[in-house]
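Tutorial sheet, problem 5. The two components below are modelled jointly, 502 residues in total.
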Amino acid sequence: MDEPLELFGEFGNPSFLDLLRRQSPDLLPRLAVEPGSEPVRAPHGTTVLALRYRDGVIMAGDRQATEGFQVASRRIEKIFKSDDLSGVGIAGVAGPAMEMARLFQTELEHYEKVEGDNLSLEGKANKLSQMIRMNLPAALQGLVVVPIFAGFDDKLGVGRLFKYDVTGGKYEDTDYWAQGSGGKDARDSLKKRWKRDMSREDALRVAVEALLDASDEDVGTGGPDLIRGIFPTIKTITRSGFGDVADDEIRRVVETLLGERARAEKAAG
Amino acid sequence: MSAMPLPYYVSPEQMMKDKAEYARKGISRGRSIVSLEYPDGILLVAENPSTLLHKISEIYDRIAFAGVGKYNEFENLRIAGVRHADVKGYSYSRGDVTAKALANAYSQALGNIFTQDIKPFEVEVLVAEVADGNHSKNEIYHILYDGTIEDEKNYAAMGGQADEIRRFLKENYRETLALEAAIQLGVRALSVTQNKTLTEKDLEVAVLDRTKERRKFRRIPPEALAQLLRAGG
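Model answer (structure tokens):
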């Protein structure tokens, strides 16, 4: 059965993960946690979301990392570019999640260089699912990493997004998804606001509003910080690539939304 | 009891000479590649009618690879280079991956193969790294079939007609050449030993473009190349 493989050896293997397994297994992000030991306390990333809009997908995340009841960081980034046409939003324990994002990015680029071609979006999503499964022993000890993966499928010409469970199970969602401690609140918000084929402007507003709602309800999720000038991270992934949304633009959306809410409060009281 | 067949003696000197001659013969059959520095980066031009089998490729953020000679052999070296770079960048940081380390690794590998294996690799490779800012310089390394390593400045040529091409470039190269002019010069250099005009169909062109974000490597597709070749000429 495995004769053809042996004939080719490892020559044609474009996987960076397999390369590490063969060559430097010590570099594999495997957290060996003794079964039955106390759960490790570590900073958690809180809320990330992805939603489809007319040109592709938008990914967004708040900037706070929380450790217990303490703020561990106010400025972490949770949305990572994995290649020109896809990104990962990380939720869960920040350390292993960021390492997973970095490994995933290297995996995609390695494949692209060795093969001279890009992986399909489906292939990328499956690869991420295998990485989450690798983390399962650590997850059982409380070091859970559950990312969102989103990208532009250049074969189908649409934006697509995938959510995962802790065992690496992969589920495609057609509209939107949010993950993390404020994920449920963000999803509730998206459920009311999301519409098919929204413009970029509308989609930005819906994304910011969902994060505002999450920070309103969830203590772990950081709201926009007007004093320090910290705003959510927002990225767009379209046919023309992975793009940043500038802080100034996000600030304007935040200020509009906060202004509307302040007026509504005043009218009510 | 049968006598052990005595291995016939060949002097090491003769053996190396034979191997070198064998390798050079293989390389001289292949088409050539030139590399030129221009203000915004490094240009690589290969005579290569195939659009699928590349002679020039990306290794890492600022590093490119080019190979002449036997395809399967330099392809093997290319993949080894991508692996070396990606593992290093993952275990340290992206900035720690350098052309110098990679060129040395190639030199060691080719040197070992040349001395230890019966058949040497019939290849020459080029490892180019574009400078990231004002404080560093472009680096271009040229590694031969026996592990000999040279660092090149301004321009480099390898393959069958490398000597003539180098002579031509020495006379015509200027540091201020913009990309368009550099491509035209590179193409003229490649055709200096043959009496046909090379068009975009015969060429593979890529650049390490300093003005690009993180990954500086960029292929110039045939349509764009055709325009660049026609422009100003």
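Marking note: Residues 41-268 of chain A form a domain with the Glutamine Phosphoribosylpyrophosphate, subunit 1, domain 1 fold (CATH 3.60.20.10). Full credit if you identified this.
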